[in-house]
Amino acid sequence: MEGPSVSRGFSITSLPPVIIVGLALALPLFISDPVTLHVLFMVFLYAILGEAYNIIAGFAGQFSLCQQAFFGIGAYTSAVMFSYWRISPWIGMLLGASFSVCVSLVIGYPVLRLRGHYFVLATLALGQMIKIIFLNWKDVGGAFGIWMPVVPDSLLYFQFHTTKAPYYYIVLLLLLLTVLVTYKIRNSRLGLALFAIKEDEVAAKTTGINAHMYKLTAFAISAIFTSIGGSIFAQYVLIVEPESVMSFWVVDLMLIVAVLGGLKSVIGPLIGSFLLIPVSEYTRFLLGAALQGVHTLVYGSILILFAIALPHGVAGWVVKAYDRLLVALGSLMASSSPELKTG
Q1: Are 236 and 251 contacting, i.e. CB atoms less than 8 angstroms apart?
Q2: How far apart are CA 45 and CA 130, in angstroms?
Q3: Closest Cα partner for 254 from 38, 53, 45?
Q4: How much of the chain exceeds pLDDT 70, in percent?
């Protein structure tokens, strides 16, 4: 049975997300603090990366440890094209995503035939190999990387120096797009096939599902959004080098954000990012300079506490609270509006 809805077709189930998106869009109008906007930018960025990781790990059950390679490819493509030929980073972002898809297909075709820890170890090795290639690739700066030229504020060249608000809006809109695509995948034939493969790949094959093709598709889609995240990050910091964009720390945070929030759930990576990244960034700001490494111990301890209290992720608890909120809103609207009808 459907929940309460207004006669015009508006369902109260859509009210909380609309409010949240509206608040997110209005937030920079009331907050000008660059530190807060930076933290929110990083929250949205890692929510995108967490959603991308959720597609391959949460939906398909393939815990890849080479996703940072796609992040780096996206970052390097947009950086090289802008620095060397002044080509708009937006074009570089699209080309980076295309290159990442090609690389994901090349390495995914053989590697996705592996299972369990063999797949994990193979992707770990491939990620490190790609990083070593860029460390020794002199045409893209080698270990020193690329320092992008600073130009006046421009949407075309994706640079804003007077305020961080444009970066905030760009990454927010891309996050909304990522969430929408992830939601569509989860409720599509592709999503159903991936869940079946995750539960029992042998049984899925007996029903006619081409497990390898579906896993390869999920790997490529995950690479696209991870690469876009890399391009956004490159334009935000204007410095691209292997140790920052291809570090294992990148995929580590992607995995933690997705697992903390709850795999398989579309809102899980969002919740995980909102819980983990602010703690990471603020403890680094407050403790990193004086006590190197202490910030990692602080949010690592918080992560352990969440893992003990909610071993299946925070999303399940949030969904239950959300359902209770909808019931309360439905009761309130039913008692206050005679036009409200219950399905």
Answers
A1: no
A2: 22
A3: 53
A4: 83
Please give the average per-residue pLDDT across 116-142, as a whole number: 94
Q: How far apart are CA 152 and CA 21, in angstroms?
A: 30
Closest CA to 127 of 297, 252, 212, 5: 252
Of 219, 221, 197, nearest in space to 208 by CA? 197
Q: How far apart are CA 70 and CA 77, in angstroms?
A: 10
Mean pLDDT of 6-12: 45
Name the token pair of 277.
């990244």
Give the CA radius of gyration of the chain. 21
The 10 Å CB-count burial string (b at 16+, else e) for 55-70 is bbbbbbbbbbbbbbbb
Confidence of residue 3 (pLDDT cuts 50, 70, 90): very low
Instruction: Say if residue 338's pLDDT is above 80.
Output: no
pLDDT band at 321 (very low <50, low <70, confident <90, very high): low
Strand, helix or coil for residue 120: helix
Site of tokens 């309360």: 328
Residue 100 neighbours by CB under 8 Å, 6+ apart: 70, 73, 74, 223, 224, 226, 227
The kind and range of the H/E element at 338 are none
Domain positions in the chain? 31-261
The first and second tokens of residue 215, run together, are: 């896993």
**Four-CA torsion 226, 219, 63, 17, nearest 10 degrees:** 60
Residues 6+ apart with CB under 8 A from 9: none
Residue identified by tokens 């972002």 is 93
Among 158, 152, 162, 172, smallest CA distance to 238 is for: 158
Backbone angles phi, psi at 264, to 5 degrees: 80, -20
SS (H, E, C) 135-201: HCCHHHCHHHCEECCCCCCECCCCECCCCCHHHHHHHHHHHHHHHHHHHHHHCCHHHHHHHHHHHCH
Average pLDDT for 234-250: 93
pLDDT band at 343 (very low <50, low <70, confident <90, very high): very low
Per 3-state DSSP, the chain is made up of helix, strand and coil in percentages (nearest 5) of 75, 5, 20
